[in-house]
């Protein structure tokens, strides 16, 4: 049976004659639809607006609120003061000569020869004595002289310093008066040597102050002997730093219930007040008193050796009065007991009842009968006289000469000391400002520096007088106030690492999206620009 062909159908597909179609390859990543130009512009405007806000608004506000204000300081002038180049300390002291028994020509000739002798003896140009003729009716304070020499005829040549007035009485034989043609005179040489001896301690002290500060070599005095320098160093260490006001605390300490009262106000008024009055042009004093019962010294021996003195005062058990008003306190303690201080060479032979503690005060051991209930003012005479002597030492008063001369010398020494300290403080402030560029310098510091330099100039021009001391005192206070400005001291301990630690957690989360968005937008812009360039090239080729 023969095979019959299948009926044909137009819809049928012949497998033999039609091969299957190949499918087009499909991409695994579906591309996003192209961005509309409006969307591109909108995204660019958003990113640009954020950056404009940051640059035009954020940065100026940040800069304004975080910029450290630094007032302009005359750094070069400040360093010149610190180096001693702005002021050459000169202490001209005027000495008046009263010679009523001499004729005017003889007195002038003697003054001229004495001045020449003084100039020959003086080896420190910064401290020189200038002689002038004085009026007998005027005292030293009226004519502005540091000392008055009264020449009186006599049998021999003698010199006596008045203990209560700045007056040097010199007697001379009539045959020692120099002739008008003489080039030298034994009397003039004698007067010059007496003046040099009278002011030797002052000159040595000022020389020591200048030599221990940064003074130029041409302004420095000649070197002091090792013995003199050591003595001056000990006195400087013992005395307190200058302050316009000191607080004096008088304390009565007893190891038992008696005595329970003392007449300290009367004793101070009678034995110490005169010295406080003469010190008033240089220092002011405030006073308080107290009585402390059952104050154990911690040393039970009747004879105190040198090693016992350091442990005699027990600050933990002896409640001493604190400083009042910020003024340095000088303590004067009267301890009622039977202790005495042994001599260093013979410890069995008590030789003293008091000792001075450098930069602190004095302790006086007072022996009283056991039944004494009240300490009278007369009993306190010796302790108060000792306290007065030690007060002069603690304030840096020279040890030689009459009291008026010692106090006038103290004023000049304090003027020099304050001038040098204020100048040194200006130099420290200038070096601090240059070493720390990021430190804040408020306008108050600049004003303080200006006032300091102004008063330093006035003090330098008036050294040796009360006006110079007043200006030096103001200059020292202004310099200290400028250097220890609170806002400056607080930023001394704020390094740049702290700023990074503060800013990084705040700005990091904000800066990263802004920076990445800007980078992506720049890349997209460059890609669009490149595509437009390629299309333009194709059109030109067609």
From TrEMBL:
* Membrane-spanning intervals of the chain: 46-63, 500-520
A Pfam family per the record: PIG-S
Q: Where in the cell is it found?
A: Endoplasmic reticulum membrane
Q: Does the keyword Membrane apply?
A: yes
InterPro entries xrefs: PtdIno-glycan_biosynth_class_S
Q: Which UniProt keywords apply?
A: Endoplasmic reticulum, Glycoprotein, GPI-anchor biosynthesis, Membrane, Transmembrane, Transmembrane helix
Annotated region described as Disordered, given as residue ranges: 1-39
Polar residues bias: start-end ranges = 1-17
The membrane topology of this protein is: Multi-pass membrane protein
Protein's pathway: Glycolipid biosynthesis; glycosylphosphatidylinositol-anchor biosynthesis
Q: Highest taxon of the source?
A: Eukaryota
Coiled-coil zones: none
Q: Which family does it belong to?
A: Belongs to the PIGS family.
Q: What is this protein called?
A: GPI transamidase component
């Amino acid at each position: 049976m023969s095979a019959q062909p299948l009926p044909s159908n137009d819809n049928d597909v012949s497998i033999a004659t039609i091969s299957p179609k190949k499918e087009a390859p499909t991409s695994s990543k579906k591309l996003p639809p192209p961005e509309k130009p409006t969307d591109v512009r909108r995204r660019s405007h958003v990113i640009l607006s954020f950056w404009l806000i940051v640059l035009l608004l954020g940065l100026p506000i940040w800069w304004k609120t975080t910029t450290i204000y630094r007032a302009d300081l005359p750094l070069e002038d400040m360093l010149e003061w610190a180096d001693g180049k702005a002021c050459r300390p000169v202490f001209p002291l005027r000495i008046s000569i009263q010679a009523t028994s001499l004729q005017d020509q003889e007195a002038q000739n003697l003054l001229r020869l004495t001045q020449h002798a003084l100039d020959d003896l003086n080896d420190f140009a910064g401290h020189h004595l200038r002689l002038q003729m004085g009026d007998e009716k005027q005292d030293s304070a009226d004519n502005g002289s540091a000392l008055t020499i009264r020449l009186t005829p006599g049998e021999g040549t003698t010199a006596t310093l008045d203990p209560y007035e700045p007056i040097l009485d010199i007697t001379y034989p009539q045959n020692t008066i120099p002739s008008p043609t003489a080039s030298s005179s034994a009397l003039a040489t004698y007067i010059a040597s007496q003046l040099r001896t009278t002011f030797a301690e002052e000159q040595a002290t000022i020389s020591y102050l200048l030599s221990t500060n940064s003074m130029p070599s041409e302004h420095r005095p000649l070197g002091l002997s090792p013995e003199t320098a050591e003595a001056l160093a000990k006195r400087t260490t013992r005395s307190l730093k200058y302050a316009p006001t000191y607080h004096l605390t008088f304390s009565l300490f007893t190891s038992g219930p008696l005595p329970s009262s003392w007449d300290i106000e009367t004793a101070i008024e009678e034995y110490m007040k005169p010295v406080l009055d003469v010190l008033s042009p240089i220092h002011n004093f405030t006073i308080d008193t107290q009585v402390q019962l059952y104050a154990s010294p911690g040393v039970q021996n009747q004879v105190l050796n040198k090693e016992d003195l350091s442990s005699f005062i027990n600050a933990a058990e002896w409640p001493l009065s604190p400083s009042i008003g910020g003024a340095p306190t000088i303590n004067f303690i009267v301890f009622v007991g039977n202790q005495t201080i042994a001599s260093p060479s013979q410890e069995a032979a008590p030789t003293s009842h008091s000792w001075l503690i450098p930069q602190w005060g004095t302790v006086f051991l007072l022996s009283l009968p056991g039944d004494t209930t009240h300490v009278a003012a007369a009993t306190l005479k010796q302790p108060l006289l000792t306290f007065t002597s030690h007060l002069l030492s603690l304030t840096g008063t020279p040890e030689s000469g009459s009291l008026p001369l010692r106090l006038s010398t103290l004023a000049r020494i304090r003027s020099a000391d304050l001038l040098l300290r204020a100048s040194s403080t200006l130099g420290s402030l200038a070096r601090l400002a240059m070493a720390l560029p990021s430190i804040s310098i408020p306008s108050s510091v600049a004003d303080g520096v200006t006032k300091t330099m102004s008063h330093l100039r006035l003090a330098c021009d008036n050294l040796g007088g009360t006006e110079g001391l007043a200006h030096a005192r103001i200059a020292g206070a202004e310099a200290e106030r400028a250097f220890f400005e609170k806002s400056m001291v607080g930023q001394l301990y704020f390094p740049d690492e702290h700023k990074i630690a503060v800013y990084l957690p705040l700005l990091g989360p904000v800066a990263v999206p802004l920076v990445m968005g800007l980078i992506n937008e720049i890349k997209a812009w460059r890609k669009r620009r490149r595509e437009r360039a390629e299309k333009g090239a194709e059109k030109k080729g067609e």
